[in-house]
């Protein structure tokens, strides 16, 4: 492998693992989701819906490339160290948030983790729809859509009326 290819592979692997986060010994996916929640108020939530969708599209494409590099590096499908997919799923969960209060961020975190772990239909089967890093990203995208629906219902139908001060 030439130097340029090696550098690209290394960059992809490091992006997929979010640097050291993917190497944390217990539950790296949860740590990746937590990193996404912490970063969201600064680099995702302040933007308009149009810009957020563009960020998600770019993240999906870049993350797919990075996860393919991670699969090549770790020599296995969907390595646990690759956690950029958690960022995508977590930020999809926050797509329609009316506010970024701590309660909603925490609720979104738990809802995404729940759907990412349980993998309801078609989340689990989506892991086989595409090759390489795309399959790594798409299941978290779908889990994020489930969590987005649940968080939107929680925010708009329940909490807004019962506990407006939490939002």
Tally of strands: 0
| Distance, first to last CA | 52 Å
Order of helices and strands: HHHHHHH
Instruction: Outline the biggest β-sheet.
Output: none
The average pLDDT value, as a whole number, equals 90
As residue ranges, the low-confidence spans are none
Overall, the morphology is: elongated
How many separate domains? 1
| Radius of gyration over all CA atoms, rounded | 16 Å
Quick summary of this structure?
The chain is mostly helical and 167 residues long.
Tags for this entry?
167 residues, 7 helices, 0% strand, elongated
Task: Describe this structure as you would to a colleague.
The chain has 7 helices and no strands. The protein is mainly alpha-helical. The chain has one domain.
How do the helices and strands line up, and which of them pair or pack?
Elements: H1 3-16, H2 28-43, H3 49-74, H4 84-93, H5 102-118, H6 123-126, H7 132-162
Helix pairs in contact: 1-3, 2-4, 2-5, 3-4, 3-7, 4-7, 5-7
